[in-house]
Task: structure prediction
Amino acid sequence: MKKLLALALALAMALTVSACQNSPKSGAGSAEGADDALTVGFIYIGNANDGGYTQAHHNGAVAMEEYFEGKVKTLVMEEISDTDKQAIRSAADSLIDQGATVVVGTSFGFGDTLYEMAQSGDYDGVKFLHFSGNLMADNMGNYFGATEEPRYLTGIIAGLQTKTNKLGYVGAYPYTEVQIGINAFTLGAQSVNPDVEVNVVYINSWYDPAKESQAAEALLDQGCDVIAQHCDTTGPQLAAEKAGALAIGYNLDNPTAAPGAWLTAPIWRHEAFLIPTIEKIMAGSWTPESYYGTMKDGYMDIAKLSSLVSPEAQAAVEQVKEKMLAGEFHVFTGPIQDNKGNTVVQEGETLYRDGIWKTDYLVQGASSADI
Amino acid sequence: MSLLRVSKRAELPQGRVALIRTAAVLLSLAAAAAALAAFGLNPLDIYGAIVEGAFGTGMRARQTVIKAVPLIITSLGILVAFKMKFWNIGGEGQIMAGAFAAAYVALYHGDLPRPLLLPLMALAGMAMGGVWALIPGLFKAKLGTNETIFTLMMNYIAIKFVEYLQFGPWKDPEAGGFPKIAIFPENAVLPNILGVHAGWVVALAAVAAVHLFMNHTKKGFEISVVGESAETARYAGMNITGVIVAAMLASGGLCGLTGMIQASAIDKTLGVGLSANYGFTAIITAWLARLNAVALLFVCVAFAVLLQGSAYIQLAMKVPAAVAGVVQGIILFFVLGSEFFLQYKVSRKGRV
Result:
């Protein structure tokens, strides 16, 4: 009896598998959803209500959907681990199966899988957009922002508000994207307070609420009195509030989690990229691009400064922000030394996007440890 | 003080067992339905959508199979150890160890022809996974150490070792400083058979092999005897250490094979997320299958249906990921709970 069952199951498995073979491209293109709306599928690493990174992406998606008034439908796969490739592929396939012809992956770790799909030839009817990566294909583009601009502004605030001259920074990975933010933050702080030092703790994850708070606590114990972060949740802000310190968030204007600590945050306005891009896709005029939005473009911004920010700091931020909006301020202007004493940007030299993205060092005044 | 008394049950008649199991499944569906209704969702729609989501289209069926493959092979590995009452909680580590060895072959000998490279990766993966399980096995045989703790700790060593490789010597210099290991060469990637990576054929073959091994070979029989009573085995003149070595090599070897398949077919590289908790989920599935290889195939496919269907309802019915998790949890709670009532009797105690 059981042997029969096994045989039947094996047969069923083989049959389902061969059924897939008959329609290998059934997912690609417009399989379902007969209505005219363009379906855009999003893959998130965290929860859409995480109060930080993923919520910022989700707000962009919602704003985009509203902008198109029914002509665009969005689908969402939340909490997809960016180290579990089976889960990533499954999420992308599910979105396409549900009719998505645009797939947006919003974590660096999704890149390889999306690229593989884009290159495979099985998904030519689908366009892939990847946040924070650099991979491109005929049907895949990427997008990111000049985080160095708002990071620099938040550094100014931290440099003026610290009493211990020790700033804490919870970083995800010792990776270029994160190092750019740390360096910009440090340079901003040093521009108003030459004695300031920035202590970084890497948690080796983008999204890990427990580790994010632990790292912040370790920094607070070392005497840091302003905590900045390059990780996804409000953990560091909560830790700072509990210790009576100040916090600078990231990704989203969300003072509600730790109102007693919140100063401001470098934030994204993802709709500033999504709306024109989706518009082009609908018009059929889209070509793969590597988008890099600035404050001037309205893609990057600094959140509204809280009442904890001193008038002096407000004025200092306003002054530099104006120059940035006019496109006249460049964060990485030499001379800049790394924390080993090497000159990394020469006097009179300015780094633009390509130069900035070669960063593999921390600037003088910043030092790091792992947790 | 307690008013309830729990005692071990005598063997129940078959009909009674079937009744309790069926009741558990029905109750779980009813309880999950109540939970879904509390979220304002129609349970019947959701259940229908889960099935629809697992088999409705070629792509969905393919995803279900892809999800079932690592579960089946890992569960078989767990089954062999559990038959010997060796509580192997180290599936995660054995998967990682196997994936590491396969990755070593792929990254350093990737220029070998595919028909040679893939079997070599599989052999390396199985050997490494086997060794990873054998270490706690030998310690238990020789020194009587606690295998639950030992195998669990071996997980962290394997995962941290892969993390070390990822951040250190194996870090891909092309990745702009991001800590990841290079993608395997094309030759090291499992080909598709009938539209799904070849792992499904391996999984079916492994079910047959483990079934034959456990039920129709001397070693398989000895493993069960050692599990029932080491004393009996010793009295019967069995070489207990030899049995433990064979069982652990088979158990860890199967987990290592999962590591090789996932690294080759899915990740196409080595990474810390690769084991994806299969080593722990497999404990549940092996247990639900009552350590029977054939039943295990059925249970793992059902589990994959639940996983794939849950992913589908998230999208199709806009059900939050957490709700799908609640449904899965409730179903498991009842089905696993019924096993307790099959083995133990709960009776009322008189007042103390």
